[in-house]
Amino acid sequence: MKTDNSKIKNVFKDMSFSPKEISIIENVFHKVTFKKGDLIIKVNDSVEYQYYTLDGCLRSFYTDEEGKEHTIQFAICDWWISDFTAFFSDSNAILNIETLRDSVLYKISKEDRELLYKEIPKIESFFRLKLERAFSAFQKRILSNISKPASERYMQFRKTYTNIERCVKNYHIASYLGITTESLSRIRKELASK
Amino acid sequence: MKTDNSKIKNVFKDMSFSPKEISIIENVFHKVTFKKGDLIIKVNDSVEYQYYTLDGCLRSFYTDEEGKEHTIQFAICDWWISDFTAFFSDSNAILNIETLRDSVLYKISKEDRELLYKEIPKIESFFRLKLERAFSAFQKRILSNISKPASERYMQFRKTYTNIERCVKNYHIASYLGITTESLSRIRKELASK
DNA sequence: CGTTGGCTTGAGAGGGCTCAAGGCCAGTGG
DNA sequence: CCACTGGCCTTGAGCCCTCTCAAGCCAACG
Fold first, then answer.
1. Chain segment B112-123, per-residue pLDDT in tens
2. Does A168 reside within a domain?
């Protein structure tokens, strides 16, 4: 069974592959589609896959003891998403991942990723680079969480993630920045008045 | 020129190597010692190395526009430290790294790490695993930054990093948690009264 | 045209900040 | 052996940012 993988080359867009390699890749990436509002990973699920976003918008979030949601990550076109902590450590999901609009994803399983590493070693470097960048991005976020007021974090978010801002609700952004929707609303009002 | 690498096996402590592999490893790890208070990486340096802590205590920190320091990471025995953002992306350091006590480290250069990957492939998996764990730890820290009050973050820090707490000053911990020394002091008082 | 979801606004409370002062060592030199 | 010093931690007072809780607004939609 073969899914339509016509856009599979987007996943590794700066890399070139032999026909044989492409067929290997096509065999491990599977296209999946979701409706807006679907939970593609739920807390406590085992996490078999990581997902590449071909189209749509998603978020991963943590729900705390009081039922409040805290957004870890957004994903739009060309971003990867999963509960990576669970995915990496073979433990159960601590995050939920929901689609914020109808979305088309490629999924690849942990085992198939290892297989890819063996068959096409440069793909291991590719994923390592992705991880290194994600690590740096997280560090930057920690830094701004502990050193900058909410208004600056919001401005930085707008600048850095303009495309994402267009797809998501303000309360999603608030839960990403670690503030309430009310506070975000007041910050926006303040910024607009300048 | 050969440094004393008698404890090199600690670095990869659950792995086993052939004599030939050990000699490869010994050739790329170099022991370096620092006095308390030394800056082993300074802002704007090019970052050639990552460091394995054999003994001692270090911290990496960011200094903001107002001159305030924000601790990103501590390192004691068996931890790795560097300005990884700079190290990974071949850019200049945005962090300082200082020794909080006399310290003995192994350093390995970026090039030598690549070389190791080629010669001993399982070491690439080893470093990938380290990076995955560090990524998860950062995610956890982001989560607690945006969802928990300082007192809880402090308690969590004490529980998780008991060994580190013993080596560092309270104002280092405060700068790691993202609060002032005064606030930390009050939190400690509060906790002690229970 | 009422309901619902998302955003805004207001009032009051609280956690953490700033600034300023004081206390407690450990180390050092007379 | 003691006074002094500097580094570190604590305490206090006042303020500000963000939170909570509550209400109101508006556009979309069945």
1. 999 999 999 889
2. no
Domain of residue A65, residue span: 15-120
CATH number at residue B83: 2.60.120.10
Whether residue B7 is predicted with pLDDT greater than 90 in this model: the reply is no
In a domain, A137, yes or no: no
Q: How far is residue B18's CA from residue A76's CA, in Å, rounded to a whole number?
A: 46
pLDDT digits (tens, 9 = 90+) for A101-150: 999 999 999 999 999 999 998 899 899 999 999 999 999 999 999 999 99
User: Å from B83 to nearest chain A CA?
Assistant: 10
Q: Most B CBs within 10 Å: which of A135, A173, A176, A177, as the mutation test of the B interface? A: A135
* Residue B2: predicted pLDDT: 47
Smallest CA-to-CA distance from A65 within B114, B100, B93, B147 is with B147
Is the CB of residue A187 inside 7 Å of nucleic acid strand D? yes
pLDDT one-digit tens code per residue, A168-187: 999 999 999 999 999 999 99
A156 in a structural domain: no
Q: Which of B156, B111, B145, B78 is nearest to A145 (CA)?
A: B145
Choose the closest CB to A84 out of B84, B135, B145: B135
Say whether A85 and B140 touch across the interface (CB within 8 A). yes
User: Which helix (H) or strand (E) segment is A153 a member of?
Assistant: helix A150-160
Total tally of structural domains belonging to chain A: 1
The pLDDT of residue B6: 62
Kindly report the nearest CA distance between residue B129 and chain A, in angstroms: 8
Are B128 and A128 in contact (CB < 8 Å)? Answer: yes
CB contact under 8 A, A135 and B140: no
Helix axes A181-192, A150-160, angle to 10 degrees: 80
Write the DSSP symbol of residue A78.
T
Taking the model in full, what pTM does it have? 0.93
CB proximity under 8 Å: B 162-181 to A: 177-178
pLDDT tens-digit readout, A55-90: 999 999 999 988 999 999 999 999 999 999 999 999
